[in-house]
Design a protein that fits this description.
- This protein has 248 residues and is mostly helical.
- Helices cover 76% and strands 0% of the residues.
- The longest helix is centred in the middle third of the chain and has 27 residues.
- The radius of gyration is 18 Å and the shape is globular.
């Protein structure tokens, strides 16, 4: 079964990357930097989009403190390094996203995406370790994180050259969403359960929905969809810390 899961991951990855290669470059929409809620409070531009990043910082700090104070915990292979990468990425997301929303431009978005990419890939490594094999999860961690970082670097370099291409970053962000449901339904795990995956995925899915409805939500309530996105994504990240505490 581990071999079948590995082959499925490889097959889905090849199909996805092949399709994006055929599709052609995907540029960053310049309007992405224009958010619905641009209120200035306490002299801080885009106040609520900035301060709603605080939960990321809190989750990241508490996650790293947990990793430091617990020499081992019962995730497959006790893959502490993947957990450390994940919470470093979450902490970095809180800081870099806060900075980006003060000055929304491509370079701020670069740092925001770089830290998110680290978290995406670290979590993917943990799931592979839980559902495929301990060794596979450990071995693939560094290559995944490096690819995630490369995907963001590739985007900003091509953007600066006037031909921005988001395709590698799309792979970083969305390939795990295609692979994880497949492997979790052909394999099982006692450490990161299917329910855990569904909770984390639901939080992330809700965050993406809030992001897409940024202005619509802001017309209804005094908080924009993008601010709610930060809160939903931080709750999703917190669930991994909950998993670790549950098993410590």
């Amino acid at each position: 079964m581990p071999r079948i899961a590995s082959l499925l991951i490889f097959f889905i990855s090849c199909i996805s990357i092949g399709y994006l290669s055929w599709y052609g470059p995907i540029a960053q929409d310049p309007a992405y930097h224009v958010f619905a809620d641009q209120r200035i409070l306490l002299r801080l531009p885009n106040f609520w989009n900035v301060v709603t990043n605080l939960p990321f910082i809190i989750v990241g700090i508490f996650g790293l403190l947990f990793c430091k104070s617990n020499e081992s915990f019962s995730l497959p292979g006790e893959n502490r390094m993947a957990c450390i990468f994940f919470f470093v990425g979450i902490l970095g997301t809180g800081i870099s996203s806060g900075y980006y929303h003060i000055i929304p431009d491509n370079w701020g978005l670069f740092w925001d995406r770089l830290t998110m990419a680290v978290s995406f890939m670290a979590f993917f490594s943990l799931v592979i370790g839980a559902y495929v094999s301990n060794e596979a999860g450990k071995k693939i961690l560094v290559p995944l994180v490096l690819f995630g970082m490369f995907s963001v670097l590739y985007w900003i370099v091509t953007e600066e050259q006037g031909a921005g291409d988001l395709r590698p970053y799309i792979v970083t962000q969305f390939l795990p969403m295609l692979v994880i449901p497949v492997i979790m339904f052909i394999r099982s795990s006692l450490s990161i359960t299917r329910s855990d995956i569904l909770i984390i995925a639901s939080g992330y899915g809700l965050a993406k929905l809030f992001e897409s409805l940024d202005a619509v939500i802001y017309q209804i309530i005094p908080l924009s969809g993008h601010s709610l996105k930060h809160l939903a994504a931080a709750c999703s990240a917190y669930w991994l810390l909950h998993i670790l505490k549950r098993q410590s």
